[in-house]
Design brief:
about 425 residues, alpha+beta, Phosphorylase Kinase, domain 1, Transferase(Phosphotransferase), domain 1, 6-stranded antiparallel sheet, about 30% helix, about 15% strand, globular
Length: about 425
């Protein structure tokens, strides 16, 4: 519709800024330069102020990952008398490290989450998509996903709190939101997320202040830009990550990043490696096949870690033993907290020999802590609230995947009630 409107009635792009960003020393690696396994040349060489797809003017950088960058942009396809509208644009890498299948999969997953069932209470807690397009650089074609801009992720949110620990009261609300979102993914979309982490749960803006914050964010970068690193073929920008006070400017928790997701129904091969090590479900460590319940374990372990500010299935005192012992360390803590795994789980694991000898003895007994349990792990909660939290954790963290409760069953757990 807007393409037919005379250009003089559309919102106009901003002119090139007159302010000059300070330079970052060439010896300091930042952002895309630090991406593992992805050469810098494979990222799109963005220039702030650039107009993408004849529609979106890029105003600020929001972040980057190992395979993409995310940018804030003004939507110019609006009447000039309307308030500005902003979108986030996720741009995938191109070239020799690009994986079109992964990028297309994420697009398909997002299209599915957008259309499945808007009436479901978990719909608002799952990332959806507005549109997509492609752009070209010297590296090749880049897939661009147009998304709703979001605030800080769960990892950044903690810095708003004393001792970098999110209040337990807020964590109860977050838990209910995420479980509603997981129920939507599992029951309505048939999707297993496979990678729930504090980086992939991001908070939306409160609707009343959303536009004003994004406008201020963009104007600030325009008039007082962050330092940049100027290279021969591109400028590497720093992201704007501070959106100001949480109250009253924060909305709900949103589950994002579906590039590693899998469908839970049909004849799919679901025995590949997923999830960060300290959040891996036991069936994933053992390669015993996984389904929706892997997300439940993943979230249970993540939540416990957020409550205490340290991972449940990890031990910092053992880290000097090297990366090769990392998975065994996680498995050992599972044994300490849950007891020995049932033989039914071990019987179907392809990697059992990595953890158990021919006599069915755990190979790393010295890694099993002597005094480790849910009760000793949780120190920030006490009394009845602690009892409810332990019971909640036990509903999610069970050896056998089929014994874990579903997201729908967990949504109204006593511990999440304020």
């Amino acid at each position: 519709m807007f393409r037919l409107v005379p250009p003089c009635l559309r919102q106009q792009s901003w002119p090139a800024p007159t302010s000059q960003a300070l330079d970052i020393d060439e010896s300091i690696l930042i952002q895309e330069e630090q991406a593992p396994y992805t050469p810098l040349r494979c990222f799109y060489p963005m220039r702030l102020g650039e107009i993408l797809n004849h529609r979106y003017q890029v105003t600020a950088k929001l972040g980057c990952g190992s395979r993409s960058t995310v940018w804030l942009a003004r939507d110019l396809f609006r009447w000039k008398w309307q308030v500005a509208e902003y979108v986030a644009i996720k741009i995938s890498v191109a070239g020799e490290v690009a994986n079109g299948d992964i990028d297309t999969d994420e697009l398909h997953f997002l299209q599915h989450t957008t259309k499945a069932s808007k009436q479901h209470p978990g719909y608002e807690f799952v990332r959806t998509i507005r549109g997509h397009f492609q752009i070209r650089s010297a590296a090749g074609q880049h897939l661009c996903l147009t998304l709703e801009p979001l605030r800080e992720n769960l990892a950044m949110l903690k810095y708003h709190f004393t001792d970098n620990l999110i209040s337990v009261r807020l964590l109860k609300v977050i838990a209910a939101m995420v479980l509603n979102g997981l129920d939507y993914l599992h029951s309505e979309c048939g999707i297993i997320h496979t990678d729930l982490s504090d980086n992939n749960i991001i908070f939306s803006f409160a609707e009343k202040t959303r536009r004003s914050i994004l406008e201020h964010h963009s104007r600030t970068e325009y008039s007082d830009p962050l330092p940049v690193k100027r290279l021969a073929d591109r400028t590497v920008y720093q992201p704007h990550t501070n959106f100001g006070a949480l109250i009253p400017n924060i909305g709900g928790a949103v589950i994002t990043d579906f590039d590693a997701s899998a469908y839970g129904e049909g004849n799919w091969d679901r025995n590949h490696d997923i999830q960060p090590v300290r959040l891996k479900a036991p069936e994933v460590l053992l390669r015993a096949g996984f389904s929706y319940s892997a997300d439940i374990w993943n979230f249970g372990a993540l939540l416990c870690g957020m409550v205490e500010g340290k991972p449940l299935f990890d031990d910092a005192s053992q880290q000097d033993r090297g990366a090769d012992i990392y998975e065994a360390l996680s498995f050992a803590r599972m044994i300490a907290i849950l007891g020995p795994p049932p033989q039914a789980l071990l019987d179907r694991g392809e990697r059992v020999a990595d953890f158990y000898d021919e006599e069915k003895r755990f190979k790393f007994p010295d890694l099993v802590p002597k005094d480790c349990s849910f009760e000793t792990f949780f120190t920030r909660v006490e009394g009845e609230d602690k009892e409810k939290l332990v019971a909640f954790a036990r509903r999610m963290l069970k050896w056998l995947p089929e014994e874990r409760e579903t997201a729908k069953e967990l949504v109204d757990d006593e511990w999440t009630q304020l």
